[in-house]
Amino acid sequence: MNHRMLFLGSAIMWMAMSGCDESTSAPGTVRSGLDVSSPGTTIAGGLSEREMADLFHMREEEKLARDVYLTLADRWSLRVHENISGSEQRHMDAVKVLLDRYELRDPVGANPRGVFEDESLQKLHDELVAQGLASIEASLRVGCAIEELDIKDLQEAMAASDNQDILNVYGHLLRGSENHLRAFTGALESSAGQIYEPKYLDSGSYGAILSAAHQSGRSNARGRGAQGRPCGNGGDCMRAGNVGGSGNPADCVRATAGGRGNGGACLQAGNGGALGNCARAGSGSWGRVGRSGGQNRGSCITG
Predict the structure, then answer these.
(1) Under CATH, what is the fold of the domain 2-216?
(2) CB within 10 Å: which end of the chain, N or C, has fewer?
């Protein structure tokens, strides 16, 4: 009991210090070389076969996400791929802590990028890379699909475990993956004007994840602009300008009396064909307003 609680405390501290945000096989199938037909069977270390199989799978699934994003970042140089690949490395590290705790072998080992022990993950990795290399839009859709699948698998793994240390780590990974899903769907909408349709989650669960982003992402009416200028009540404005040259957008956020749903938010494009993004609120709901001109493209954000 004391040993387990000490580890749990250490895991929580490690996750905080490391900056961690961010498919379960059916019974009777084999994953990562383990038969999970009897998910309730207890093995050495207090884990069931199902829990062991899930740990192996999550370790490699987080590697899949990292490896795909690194490859797509090399091709498209999108910040969303670069940033989230770093988060996926921390997710991998978090699962490795659990593998070490229970003295389990590491299925990743010294495998380089793009190499997996699990044949199903190897096949999925190769398919996703091929899809993502086709276009920027496709690469963002790949990111959405990976995070959606990760969320589904984490939810199912949590439902199959009663070990608090495992549940705690999986919970951190789940929140991180939800953040990643919101980031990819937002990037897809702002860059290509496309809406992602869920493949693995039901529409209700998927919608709840996206809605949570809007609720937590709303800011108060007071703030400070990107160039250090303070913002006051009503008509608050933050401008980034064309810092860094053409193609960098200027951000402008406006609120009316700080009221929720009563303000308008606008992100306008800079020079050089950058994307324009505009969303306006009124009467408690978000509208859909696009703006474009010249080489600029307009897209909308809904909340």
Answers:
(1) Ferritin (1.20.1260)
(2) N
